Amino acid sequence: SRRHRIAVIEGDGIGREVIPAARTVLDRAASACGFTLDWRDFDWSCETWKATGRMMPEDGIARLADHDAIFLGAVGYPGVPDHISLWGLLIPIRREFDQYVNLRPVRLLPGVPCPLANKQPGDIDFWVVRENVEGEYSQIGGRMFAGTEREFVEQTAIFTRAGTDRILRYAFDLARRLGRPHVTSATKSNGIFHSMPFWDERFAAIGAEYPEIRADQYHIDILAARFVMSPERFDVVVGSNLFGDILSDLGPGVTGTIAVAPSANLNPEKKFPSMFEPVHGSAPDIFGQRIANPVGAIWAGAMMLDHLGEAEAAALVLRAIETALGDPASPRTPDLGGTAKMDDLAAAITAAV
Ligand code: NAD
Ligand code: MN
């Protein structure tokens, strides 16, 4: 029967709680749909860094390469600077495996309190596509005259034509695949002199290849306001690495708790493994109490199943999440206003699968 080899990095804090919980749900969906998930654990975390001075071994990337997907909890913990976990693990994985798409659904789920008034499940349902490997997040630049009055820093952003075109094309292809006729681009070409006019130019050029899809653009500032004031109007929103980063947290923010939001780092060509993770971090403030909401990790797992070609199982998991959250009698973790433990909510979702 079909098998998929999954590299698992639970990482730090509640990553160690929600990932095992999610695995149970995904295994149930796999057995219901007749395939096997072959999990291999990689115990890499801030603890590894404290013990060895590295977040992952020197051949870490090579050891992950031989998998169909990577399932990640969260990395980062108090006492270890965040740039260590980011540049020592997350960014190398994204870049070495050319995971140039970061994809996040923004969807109001039943039973999740929405911070916006009068919104029902179904009202808010769109996708944020973030460029994930170039743009503003670069190590190019430097600091001169450190500590003197002449001190300055320079930070360079890189927008290649190939990198820009492929993320824009992914956004339009996604809209076409989902039958959602509208792509919105985040820009700031009135203020950022070189990169954003170029981005707009490529957006117009790629958009012209998709005549049936309405393409529009907003400056990032007013776009952020529109996420809050009129989130119903979006289908697919595409942005550069920095703008996409901000929008892809703002989106889940307007639909309630970031604890339920998933994130996929995709190499759409499947030349390299893609990585799936909840949006939230290691939540040191609640780690150890087993009260973390497991839905973000479980939903990330559903996106992973979809990427692996197991659309039926992915849909099964998503429906189970909606069933469990939508049932007023089902267990609710404290972030959802309840008093249940993570394991009770995870069990309700497993049962719904
Ligand atoms: P966080 O997401 O860990 O926590 C923010 C708040 O949300 C906390 O109050 C936390 O208790 C709550 N929360 C988060 N996930 C939850 C869940 N599943 N259920 C219930 N409540 C939840 O963000 P932070 O505190 O800014 O970061 C903590 C550490 O995690 C930092 O070291 C940071 O670098 C790291 N981090 C890692 C990733 C990643 O691995 N991709 C992402 C974000 C943060
Ligand atoms: Mn972010």
Could you name the key traits of this structure?
ten-stranded mixed beta sheet; 353 residues; 2 domains; Isopropylmalate Dehydrogenase; 11 helices; two-stranded antiparallel sheet; binds manganese (II) ion; binds nicotinamide-adenine-dinucleotide
Bound molecules: nicotinamide-adenine-dinucleotide, manganese (II) ion
The helical percent reads: 40-55%
Shape: globular
Spatial ordering of strands, largest sheet: 2-1-3-12-11-4-5-10-8-9
**CATH level-four homologous superfamily name of the largest domain:** Isopropylmalate Dehydrogenase
Which class do the helix and strand fractions yield?
alpha/beta
The biggest beta sheet is recorded as: 10 strands, mixed
The string of secondary-structure elements, in order, is: EHEHHEHEEEEHEHEHEHEEHHH
Number of helices: 11
Portion in beta strands:
15-25%
The CATH architecture assignment of the largest domain turns out to be 3-Layer(aba) Sandwich
